[in-house]
Amino acid sequence: MNAAQVHLLTVHIPIIGCWGLSILFILAHYFRDDRLFKISCWLLLTILLLATIAYFSGPPAYELLKENYQVENEIVEFHALLARSCLLGMVVLAMIVGNALVQGFQGEKVPGWQRWVILVSTILLSIFWAAAAHWGGMIRHPEIRFTVSNVVETQVVQETTNRERLI
Fold first, then answer.
1. Average pLDDT in the 119-147 region?
2. What is the dotted CATH code of the domain comprising 3-166?
3. What is the torsion angle, in degrees rounded to the nearest 10, for the CA atoms of residue 155, residue 159, residue 161 and residue 164?
4. Domain range list for the chain
């Protein structure tokens, strides 16, 4: 298995996982379920580990891709910047979650404000991971790139085709 395959295999887990965790944290908050909250915290730490693998497999995957295909550096660099920001945000969130788990181990109740910070941060990370995934998809899927010039060019080609049919 090469780096590109490892990257593609692991990169979807933090994206989908953060959305799933957002739902679990919302349910834990709504039902005031400490057990579900702790399970969600452990799942977040697991997703962080997989996100780290995905992040560090990115540069070797890019090198493999660059050798075989033409890729735009700006898109790759912006994708890497977003991914790095998401990973760092997740590390900070993991420290807050780790603190909550330690509080639970010591028999202390996790304060409400800390639960809210975890919930809101997970939702925000889900949005940022989705943006990073979108930019990552644009590296090899040019059809998802939307620019005004592409729409105008398509309209011009269609008009030209329609004129040729009339003649």
1. 87
2. 1.20.120
3. -170
4. 3-166
Write out the H or E segment, with its range, that includes residue 95: helix 73-105
CA–CA separation, 88 vs 81, rounded Å?
Answer: 11
Alpha carbon 24 to its chain's center: 17
- Residues of the chain above pLDDT 90, percent: 72
Which of 51-55, 130-134, 135-139 is the least confident region? 135-139
pLDDT at 105 over 70: yes
Torsion of CA 100, 105, 107, 112, to 10 degrees: 10
Percent of the chain with pLDDT over 70: 84
Q: For residues 40 and 133, is the Cβ–Cβ distance under 8 A?
A: no
Token pair of 84, please? Answer: 């790095």
Residue for token pair 């560090």 = 56
Q: Give the integer Cα–Cα distance in Å for 153 and 22.
A: 41
Q: Nearest Cα to 55, choosing from 96, 14, 19, 110?
A: 14
Residue type, 151: V
- CB-based burial, 92-131: b 16+ in 10 Å, e otherwise: ebbeebeebbeeeeeeeebeeeebeebbebbbebbebbeb
